[in-house]
Amino acid sequence: MKTQTLLIIVWAVSMMLSACSESNNMNDNPLFSPSTLPYEAPDFDAIKVKHYRPAFEAGMEQELKEMEEIANNPEAPTFDNTIVAMEKSGELLNRTRSVFYNLTSAHTNNEIQKIQKEMAPKSAAHSDNILLNAKLYDRVKTLYDKREELDLSEAQLKLLEDTHREFVRAGAQLSDEEKERMRAINERLSTLTTQFQDNLLKITKERSVLVEDKEQLDGLSEDRIAAAKEAATEGGNDDQYLLTITNTTRVPILKSLNNRALRQRVWEASAYRGIGEDGGIDNRPLILELVELRAERAELLGYENHAAYKLDPQTAKTPDAALSMLTDLIPPVINNTKQEAAAIEKMMRKDGIEGEVKPWDWNYYAEKVRQAEYNIDQSKVRPYFELDTVLKDGVFFTMNKLFGISFEERNDLPVYHPDVRVFNVYDEDGTQIGLFYADYFARDSKRGGAWMNAFVSQSHLLDKKPVIVNVMNIPKPAEGEPALISFDNVTTMFHEMGHAVHGLLSDVKYPSQAGTSVPRDFVEFPSTFEEDWAIQPEVLENYAVHYKTGEQIPQELLDKVIEASNFNQGFDTQEYLAATMLDMEWHLLGTDDIPSEVQDFEKKALAKYNLDSEAIPPRYKSPYFAHIFSGGYAANYYAYIWSGVLAADAFAYMQQQGGLKKENGDKFRRYILSQGGSDEAMELYKQYRGQEPEVKHLLKRRGLDTDI
Predict the structure, then answer these.
(1) Which of 87, 386, 496, 530 is catalytic?
(2) Does residue 487 sit in the same domain as residue 560?
(3) Is the pTM above the cut of 0.70?
(4) Which is nearest to 299 in space by CA: 519, 580, 588?
């Protein structure tokens, strides 16, 4: 018995030592020191899942120690020994986060998800340990109170003001009891948002549609059918076809499917996910708890609701300002969708279908109307949009014309998935700016949507150049087939490159101000601005070439593609506005207003703004609205249209100045892309444009230029 006890003790000590070794052996963990690859690009060949947990724990411990040293510095606070010192802290943690959190979205697995769940509350507590540190806040406040006497540059003053605001908004001025409640709220919120994201990945698989009869896929191209068969086979369903559900309510494949019953089945699989149907995953309890905790946190900090709290640091400043712009758009949008619906129902009657258009019919018959009005057959258009050609001769071509930058692919750097590509990015004088990673194809390990992340952010203070990644979800073609993509995907490639150049062309000193570190309702401005280049004739003519023959897209077809770009914009804008108003209504709630039922609240919220259309549901319904329940867009989803006002105005201005010319790009780079968050966002825009933006350009851009 004694021998057995001794063995147990020895085993326990051994396990403790092993765990200690795993956590602290810096030589064995590549995250513990900067990567030796160019520009500190992540060494994905060396980084293993087992390395993340100890790197997170050591990184948090290291940053807390650094912050304690700043807080307890016996010298009087100065900008350098407090603000700059904080900017230099957290190197290990920042490095770990930048790699890990891209993988949680782009290439996750069960172990990564497990670590993510474990680290979410720990990370929230870690942030609170810093921002609720009374001594640290006192040093920041001392500097803030005498900021006019410190002879700071504009960027330094902005950094000091932003740092002070971050502490205050985190609860630094609360009582000890209130701070403890704030900690508990933040920890629970981090757990809930992580669970929501985890659920969405599982729901994508849960709601995929298996089709047994190939004849039901009539309307799809042979390459898309082959890809669906390949996806089903990979999932263990031989001789079947798997149709995956995208992140939005609208599923792109509905444009092509001739079988109405299958269209309805696919649409319902998309629209009714996350509500626990047939014993599936139910996100509704998470939503109700999330909005209640967010409302409570806002009230603790002295705000009326979460929307007021979130918009305070944005360019819109208040919910009323955002709502004013949004509600002004609703009447012309509805007017357009009524016209679109009438045209669609007329087309449906030709097929013998009476009554009002259903949501699973809209995009199918909208495509028929598009073809009838513009005589465009998408099967004849797609061969002119081959992914690699679009990337190099469209996106890269435009960036070169505007900013003088060039991209050169390299194959010697490790990547986190074989589909990921890496490019050197050079400035006009041949000096290298940084690295660009492209991860375009959909897969089971990737969440839906498209986004940009920074593996390394630019900073003169830390002597770092940017390493940026764009991620999308383009259906991967069957083995050996070309990647022929939709024009929507073309536009998204331009959009995400707009985010990428915001990071790549950043030219700031302080890491907190680098690249896309701008207000949420400004961050989508540079990306939306780049979208419009995709339909400019001089750009289209350069990349829209047949993948087999190399022939340019016929001018007649090209003209129709451009003319048709505004088609169905009423639908596109209304589904977006519906999601936006849904977001705002959830976050205008006070703690006494939380509903007990998600779908009933959603229905009433949409009806309030006359957006409760059966045929045009929100782009995202609440149970799968990742932007606001697991992303950073809570009460900020309006940012896309707010940024769209800026983008349309800026694009119209650039066209007035001669269009696609480097001198125009240089000005945009100087005042917008290079500045990051070093100045107030609207001030940057006015420096570039000479005035505040006008909404008329957005209405025209979306084909909604009416007198209503």
Answers:
(1) 496
(2) yes
(3) yes
(4) 588
